[in-house]
Amino acid sequence: MSQPRAILLLADGTTFHGKAAGKIGTTTGEICFNTGMTGYQEVFTDPSYYGQLLVTTNAHIGNYGTTSVDTESGSIKIAGLICKNFTVPYSRHLAEASIQDYLEGEGLVGISDVDTRAIVRHIRTRGAMNGIISSEIFDLAELKRRLDAVPNMDGLELSSFVTTPEAYTLGNPDATYRVAVLDLGTKQNILRNFLKRDCYVKVFPAKSSVEDIMAFLPDGLFISNGPGDPGAMDYAVTTAQGMLDQEKPLFGICLGHQILARAVGIPTYKMHHGHRGINHPVKNLITGKSEITSQNHGFGVSPEAIAQNLDRVEITHRNLNDDTIEGIRVVGKPAFSVQYHPEASPGPHDAAYLFDQFIDLIKEHQAVRA
User: Fold this and answer.
1) Is 258 annotated as a binding residue?
2) Is 224 a known ligand-binding residue?
3) What is the CATH number of the domain that holds 44?
4) Which end of the chain has fewer CB atoms surrounding its CB within 10 Å, N or C?
């Protein structure tokens, strides 16, 4: 199949020429890369990637096609795709469509046949930055004009674009446990992990009040993953503080981890190029065991601030690549969080215990109240 040409322009002026992938058009966002060798459709539909141009480091994208069961939300959430080999023919009997048909159907613009290794090395050196992909505009001056109008991720609130518009429930109303989820951009497999542990789940919009959430009479509270800068989400921080006041078990993942940290006075910061992949080693400081984890975040929790506030926050997990904070517990509260994604099955089950830990905390809380 002959593909039209396409161009990628980065904010620092670096240009890459390749071929169009997906829809013919123009798209912008912050460029980032993911090192996973499989799971491209799960990544495309992860709400945490909203507003980002994704570079896939695996050489072939599309070789096993696409299927509706491999999605983490109702639609593609990345802003654009950048890959090396865009493989339209596929060899998977469960697949429902080719990568090209899938991207065209979702209206996603992409570029292929570019040196993704060079792009990744550039991001690792220069840091995350905005970019523009186009398969219809090739005037660099016009592309730069459009790119200059794109806001930086630092300071950008995005959860309100991907959260559920209305609260909804999942599971059996007579289940053993009731879990309230604050949806900042939750993945479907997180919800499935709760359902498999005999939970009746109610998912609430990002800007729900604590009063609305507690009217569900939950046994446990959860703050989900999601996109954007946690420093621009005072509304979620206020909700998290109200959740902590309820003295109920509270669990946070990724953005939920950052929001929980900010709720107890620990700031977050923009990382140089973030962590995105399914092979990040993390050490559990409580058990001494290490885990292979799945990660997707461009912001982190300040280790310096935690070191000065050990009476409020205990570090439970650290990244073995760069020593960043990967997990915390709130001192004196039944609340904990991790920066990585236990529901993504890395390892493949290294981090699944975190959901069991949350359920155990609910059981302990119920036993004390009984």
Assistant:
1) yes
2) no
3) 3.50.30.20
4) C
Q: What is the pLDDT of residues 255-305, one digit of tens each?
A: 999 999 999 999 999 999 999 988 899 999 999 999 999 999 999 999 999
Asked whether residue 226 is marked as a ligand-binding residue, the answer is yes
Q: Which residue of the set 30, 254, 257, 317 is catalytic?
A: 254
Residue type, 204: F
Beta-strand relationship, 5-10 and 15-22: antiparallel
Q: How far apart are CA 237 and CA 40, in angstroms?
A: 31
* Residue 296 annotated as lining a ligand binding site: yes
Q: Same domain for 106 and 191?
A: no
What number of other Cβ atoms are within 10 A of residue 368's Cβ?
8
Active site annotation includes 343: yes
CA gap 3, 113 in Å, rounded: 10
Do 197 and 319 lie in one domain? The reply is yes
Confidence of residue 367 (pLDDT cuts 50, 70, 90): confident
Number of other residues whose CB lies within 10 A of the CB of residue 62: 24
Catalytic residue flag (residue 364): no
Catalytic, 275? Answer no
Helix, strand and coil in the chain, % to nearest 5: 30, 30, 40
Place of tokens 């509706």: 68
Q: Single out the residue in 87, 121, 148 at which a domain terminates.
A: 148
Where residue 131 falls (left for φ over 0; alpha for ψ -120 to 50; beta otherwise) is beta
* Cβ(154)–Cβ(46) below 8 Å: no
The response to whether 319 counts as a known ligand-binding position is no
pLDDT band at 11 (very low <50, low <70, confident <90, very high): very high
